[in-house]
Amino acid sequence: MKKVFVFFMIALLFAMAATSPAAAEDRRTRVITFLASGTRTAATSQSTGFEVSQYAEGNIFVNVTAEAGVSTLDITIEISDDNSTYYTHTAMAQISATGQYRQAITNFGKYIRIKYTVAGTSFTFAVAGVFKN
Fold this sequence. Notes:
The protein is α+β, with helices and mostly antiparallel strands. The protein has helices at 2-19, 22-26, and strands spanning 29-46, 50-51, 57-68, 72-80, 87-91, 99-106, 111-132.
């Protein structure tokens, strides 16, 4: 009788775990458009800061659709705890051609923004991030 009870309890726990919606509800994802697609000439600038403290990991996507002349694009991911003073988190590899580029990130602060530097003529690009907990 004791073995049947133990088996029943184990089966009940597995059934509850399999039907529990908590795991799906706890998983949050957020998509952020840091820089909408646009042509940017030789300059250094940055996006607005976005609050991401509730997320544990993310991917930054850079979609370069046009490059004029001989140009380079540097993308730096910056983090902050106060949305005022920003520090370099990750510098992506320098971009010199059209294409799609990705950078995985973890251990970021409360706020994140994208800094970019276009050297040469111009680039047309967009930057987005996907964050999840």
